[in-house]
Amino acid sequence: MNKLGLFLTFLCLFGIALACESDYNPNLVTIGECKANDVAHWRETDSLPVVNPADLPAADRTVHEERMAYILSLARAQNKKFVASIYSPAGELLCVGINTGSPNIISHGEIVAINNCTTLHGIKSFTGHTLYTTGEPCAMCASALLWADFKTIVWGTFNSDLLCKICMSNIPMDSSYIFSRYYGLRPTAPVLIGGVLRADADAWFGTYCNRPTSIYYIKPQCACQNTSSPLNVTQTLVNTWIDGNQVQYSQFNAVIRNNANNVTVTNPTFKSLPSGVNPTQIWGLQKTSVADQWVLSWNPMLTPNQTFSFGYIIQGATELTFNAEAQH
Ligand SMILES: *[C@@H]1O[C@H](CO)[C@@H](O)[C@H](O)[C@H]1NC(C)=O
Ligand SMILES: *[C@@H]1O[C@H](CO)[C@@H](O)[C@H](O)[C@H]1NC(C)=O
Ligand SMILES: *[C@@H]1O[C@H](CO)[C@@H](O)[C@H](O)[C@H]1NC(C)=O
Ligand SMILES: *[C@@H]1O[C@H](CO)[C@@H](O)[C@H](O)[C@H]1NC(C)=O
Ligand SMILES: *[C@@H]1O[C@H](CO)[C@@H](O)[C@H](O)[C@H]1NC(C)=O
User: Fold this and answer.
1) Is 62 exposed, middle or buried (0-12, 13-18, 19+ CB in 10 A)?
2) What is the average per-residue pLDDT within 152-165?
């Protein structure tokens, strides 16, 4: 035994009652769910469903719409985008919160409302309460709402629209992803209702896409899907590497599939995004004379269920988006 070993043994004997036997070592654990030699990982979890207000009983929908209309009216009156309100389990309006950017950048409407309710009513945990917000909770707020134990969360505009269609900076994530992790904190899932007075809320957010100097603006990086096209493009990252000049490259393989069971698509065209970004190499697709537009290099016809493969190499690690355009 070396000197360190002796010293540790001494420490152990000396402090046996306090330390050695009760020292917790996760690599020797026998009582958790994952055993000593397991790599501990989360179980696979689907995102929580988001209730469409159209599927609610009319009376419930009316209540949610009235409450959403109230925070939208506050938002307009104060000329602020993100406003939240909290209702007690008995349906009483307890407090509101407006994102004014004060005292700091994380003072989102939901956070302000929670703190406001605590100041006004001394509430520390919001079990059974309902929160309304003009815009879907961001990843930070969704986490806060889970910790706060809200029963129901209701929003007007979706995060995906805020970022992809309204060009407002946001963490690109559906709140239902965060909310689906409820099981680490509590036994029951919160109820999510998204898109209450959606058109009004969307109209209030307006668009920042043509206001690139606004502090809220960000150039979206989204995967857009033309729901009226039967063609589906799925991509897989197959390799990424860094060349001698420290430039990163990635290879993506992609499959176009005709999901229609009765429509043959001929000469489809695809638009690539972000605009003006080109792969360093591409096979299976070729450019047309229209900016960002691509056609299939061969077999330009896709029968029902038929697939077509292409691939490309691009600088960086972010895939290009290929959207199916009008079919001929
Ligand atoms: C707190 O909520 C009350 C009641 O809705 C509201 O009158 C007040 O303006 C809110 N305060 C803040 C800081 O948002
Ligand atoms: C597109 O294909 C992927 C992979 O097969 C599938 O997960 C996804 O649901 C499809 N989307 C549509 C709209 O068909
Ligand atoms: C294709 O099938 C869908 C549903 O099965 C149907 O609604 C549609 O009318 C069909 N289209 C054609 C062109 O037959
Ligand atoms: C396409 O695939 C679906 C599901 O895999 C199948 O039910 C359908 O019959 C197929 N249609 C054709 C025309 O092959
Ligand atoms: C979406 O697809 C439909 C059907 O293929 C097509 O008519 C339409 O032009 C497409 N929309 C866009 C914006 O490309």
Assistant:
1) exposed
2) 97
DSSP type of residue 182: G
Nearest to 188 by CA among 145, 149, 133, 130: 149
Which ligand is nearest to the Cα of residue 326, counting in written order?
Answer: 5
DSSP code per residue over 161-225: HHHHTT-B---S--HHHHHGGGGGT-SSPPEEEE-TTHHHHHHHH---TT-TTSTTB--------
**CA-323 nearest atom, ligand 5:** 14
Do you find a cis peptide bond into 187, omega within 30 degrees of 0? no
Which of ligand 5's atoms lies nearest the C-alpha of 230? 5
Question: Taking the C-alpha atoms of 179, 223, 106 and 44 in order, what is their torsion angle to the nearest 10 degrees?
Answer: 30
Let me know: does 310 contact 284? Beta carbons within 8 Å: yes
Does residue 230 line the site of ligand 3, with CB under 6 A? no
Would you say residue 15 has pLDDT above 50?
A: no
106: phi then psi, degrees, rounded to nearest 5: -95, 15
Q: Are 194 and 177 in contact (CB under 8 A)?
A: no
What atom of ligand 5 comes closest to residue 265's alpha carbon?
A: 5
Is the minimum distance from the CB of 152 to ligand 2 under 6 angstroms? no
Element housing 72 (H / E): helix 58-78
CA 311 – CA 158 distance, rounded (Å): 32
Residue 224, token pair as written in the block: 């857009």
**How many whole angstroms from 130 Cα to the centroid of ligand 1?**
16
Task: Measure 225 CA to ligand 4 centroid, in angstroms.
Answer: 21
246-260, pLDDT tens digit by residue?
Answer: 999 999 999 999 998
Task: For residue 85, report the distance from its CA to the centre of ligand 1, in Å.
Answer: 9
Percent of the chain beyond pLDDT 90?
A: 78
